[in-house]
Design the sequence.
C-alpha cells in the first residue's frame, strides 16, 4: 500500500467535514440576504441560500469565504489522483461502466428523490399553503431542476469520461509526464506556478462576466460558470500527479512540498488576504479603481486556491500518518455522507429558525446533527446494499452493468 494512502484518506475525511460545515453555517453568515427568498421568484437564489436565519456571526463569513475559494478545487484534485491507476487496473470500458453505476445512478436518485425532500423547508418558510401537495405543485412548475450538491456527481462523471477517452487515445500519457512529475518532489514551486498561471488564464475572463455564485446549465446539469474550468483543471492536475505515484513526486513524504509546509501555509494566508482586501475595497469604497482591484482579487483567488491545496496536502502528508478511528470511518463513508448531508442540513436549519440561540450555537448544532445523521444514513445504506448484494449482483449481470457486489456504497470515495 502506498505510504500516502493513509494521509490522503484522512484528508478526504476532513475535506468532507469541511464541506458539511460550510453548508451547515451558511444560514448564519452576515452577508446572507436580509429576508427569506420567494420560492417561485427568479433567479431562485434560495438554491445558494436555502434557509436564512436572523442570527448571524461574522466568523462564519470568514470560514465560508475561506472554504468556498478552495474546497471544491481540492475535492476535484483528490478525485483525479486515483483515476489513472484505476484505468490501468480495469481498462477504460470497465472503468466507465463502474463510474456510471457508482456516480450516475446516485446522481439521478439524488436529484429526483432526495432534493425535493431537502428543499421542502425552503418552500414552507414563505408558503401560504405549506402542505406537501401544494409544494409538489410549485416544485414541478419550476423552470429549473435544483440539484443542490448533486451537481458534483454529474460533473465528476463527465470528467471521468474525458479521462477514459484520454487513456484510450494516449495510454502512455503518465509515462510521458513522468520526467516533469519527478521534479515536483524537489521543485514543487514550478508546478505551483504552472497551476496558478493556467487557472488564472481560465478564470479571469469568466469572472468578468459571471459572479462566483452564478450557475449555468441545462436541466439538472448545472455548474458554477466561473469556477467550472478551475474544477476541470484541478481534476487534470490530480490525474497527472496520480499517474506518476501516490508516494513519489509531489506526494513524496520527504519531498520539498512536505518539508516546507509552513511556508505554503503562510503563503496561503497572504493570498487569502490579498483576495479579501481587494474584494472589500470594491464593495465598500465607491471611488476605488474597481477594474484593477478585481484583477488583483481574482489573482489572489487563484493563488490562494492553489496554495491552500498544496498546504493541506503537505500538512496531511507530514502529520496525518496515523490511523484516526473517527476520521477513518468518515473517510470510508465519505460518499454516503456527501450524498445524504444536504437533506439534514436544510431541515435542521429550518427546525432551529425560531429557536432563541446565538448563531454560533445554531451553526455548531446543525453541524453536529448533520454529521451524525449523514453518517448513520450512509452506514445504514451500506448494510442494506450488503444484505441485497446477491439480488443486485444478479440484476446487474442481467443488465450488463458492474456489480454492486464488489464494493459498498460508502466505499465510492470519489476515486477508485
Sequence:
Amino acid at each position: 500500500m502506498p505510504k500516502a494512502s493513509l494521509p490522503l484518506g484522512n484528508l478526504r475525511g476532513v475535506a468532507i467535514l469541511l464541506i458539511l460545515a460550510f453548508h451547515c453555517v451558511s444560514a448564519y453568515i452576515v452577508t446572507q440576504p436580509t429576508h427569506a427568498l420567494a420560492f417561485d421568484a427568479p433567479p431562485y437564489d434560495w438554491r445558494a441560500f436555502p434557509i436564512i436565519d436572523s442570527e448571524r456571526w461574522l466568523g462564519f463569513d470568514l470560514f465560508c469565504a475561506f472554504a468556498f475559494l478552495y474546497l471544491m478545487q481540492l475535492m476535484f484534485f483528490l478525485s483525479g489522483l486515483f483515476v489513472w491507476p484505476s484505468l490501468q487496473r480495469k481498462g477504460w470500458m470497465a472503468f466507465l461502466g463502474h463510474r456510471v453505476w457508482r456516480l450516475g445512478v446516485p446522481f439521478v436518485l439524488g436529484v429526483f428523490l432526495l432534493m425535493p425532500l431537502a428543499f421542502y423547508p425552503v418552500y414552507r418558510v414563505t408558503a401560504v399553503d405549506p402542505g406537501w401537495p401544494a409544494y409538489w405543485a410549485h416544485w414541478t412548475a419550476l423552470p429549473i431542476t435544483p440539484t443542490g450538491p448533486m451537481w458534483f456527481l454529474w460533473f465528476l462523471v463527465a470528467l471521468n469520461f474525458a479521462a477514459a477517452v484520454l487513456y484510450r487515445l494516449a495510454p502512455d500519457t503518465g509515462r510521458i509526464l513522468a520526467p516533469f512529475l519527478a521534479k515536483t518532489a524537489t521543485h514543487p514551486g514550478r508546478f505551483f506556478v504552472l497551476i496558478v498561471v493556467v487557472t488564472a488564464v481560465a478564470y479571469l475572463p469568466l469572472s468578468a462576466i459571471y459572479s462566483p455564485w452564478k450557475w449555468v446549465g441545462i436541466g439538472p446539469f448545472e455548474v458554477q460558470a466561473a469556477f467550472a474550468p478551475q474544477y476541470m483543471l484541478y481534476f487534470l492536475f490530480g490525474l497527472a500527479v496520480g499517474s506518476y505515484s501516490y508516494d513519489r513526486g509531489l506526494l513524496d513524504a520527504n519531498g520539498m512540498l512536505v518539508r516546507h509546509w509552513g511556508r505554503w501555509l503562510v503563503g496561503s494566508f497572504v493570498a487569502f488576504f490579498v483576495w479579501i482586501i481587494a474584494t472589500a475595497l470594491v464593495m465598500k469604497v465607491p471611488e476605488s479603481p474597481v477594474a484593477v482591484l478585481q484583477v488583483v482579487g481574482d489573482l489572489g483567488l487563484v493563488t490562494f486556491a492553489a496554495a491552500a491545496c498544496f498546504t493541506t496536502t503537505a500538512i496531511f502528508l507530514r502529520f496525518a500518518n496515523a490511523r484516526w478511528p473517527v476520521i477513518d470511518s468518515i473517510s470510508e463513508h465519505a460518499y454516503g455522507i456527501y450524498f445524504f448531508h444536504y437533506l439534514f442540513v436544510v431541515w435542521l436549519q429550518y427546525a432551529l429558525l425560531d429557536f432563541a440561540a446565538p448563531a454560533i450555537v445554531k451553526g455548531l448544532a446543525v453541524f453536529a446533527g448533520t454529521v451524525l445523521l449523514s453518517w448513520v444514513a450512509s452506514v445504514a445504506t451500506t448494510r442494506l446494499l450488503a444484505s441485497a448484494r446477491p439480488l443486485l449482483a444478479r440484476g446487474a449481470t442481467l443488465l450488463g452493468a458492474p456489480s454492486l457486489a464488489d464494493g459498498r456504497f460508502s466505499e465510492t470515495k470519489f476515486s477508485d
Observations:
- The longest helix spans residues 92-126.
- Residues 5-411 form one domain.
